[in-house]
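Researcher: Please translate sequence to structure tokens.
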Amino acid sequence: SVEYQQIAVDLPQEKSQITEEAVLNMLEIFGEKENYKKHFFPNSSRMKIFLKGGNIDIDLSSGSGLIEKKDKRQFLHQVNYLHYNPINWWTIFSDMYVIGLFLLAVSGGIDSMVMLDLFKKNNLSFSVCTCDFSLRGKESLGDCLLIEKICKKNNIIFYSKKFNTKKYAKENNISIQMAARELRYNWFNKIMKKNNYDFLSTAHHNDDNFETILFNFIKTTGYKGLSGIPYKKNFIIRPLLKSGKNLLVDYSKKNGLSWRKDSSNDDIIYLRNNLRKKIIPLLKEINPSLEKSVI
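Model: Translation complete:
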């Protein structure tokens, strides 16, 4: 459940004059100083403060505010991850998802846009980040613009970064895909540390997990690779990992979500795309329930 409390605060109307110290002093009055995590300004007349277990929305022009506190939810399972439920769609199994501050890695594709929508509808505390790897020209720019538009509309903190991926790959003698992975996760880590986020959330789903297991099997990574993608590893969570791609597509259609198609996903020069487009369909002709047999 969620509890609300109307408050009146004494803060400068100009956001440039509001320091972290001033925010902490104000929170101390309401007994929330120890719960402070981060604050930001969605616009020039509004401030939002992230707390452990809630947030505060303040109208700087009037000094009125609203504290929103979320009760800890019953621990329904012995794992710490967000889990897809085919009936209810979104079930939260752990208290940490109520009190945590999340950074969502959003590409603009259907999977991550579903994740963004679910976090928004479940009123979780989160921000969004996206990368432009300078590999798809105007197409990748369009991805970033769509995500930025949605974040602005919903007053969500938005981070974006453009990388010269080809140059990085050449300098480090690695593949384009590995370069993109290193660049984005190094950047994610910097944002996490600088802004005190608790978890990074990615939109990997059940089909990704299945592809990963087959990919690792082909690449002979050993038994650890055959375990697939973990639900949670260190500070990274994958809330859609129990969701099949078809279900994400269905959710997107039913909720009228906007999303972008990454044309590079159709390029079979990449082994993972080749698996998805050619090898897996052949294997499913032999065993239609292949995914259930493997995962």
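Researcher: Any highlights?
Model: Residues 139 and 293 are 37 Å apart (CA to CA).
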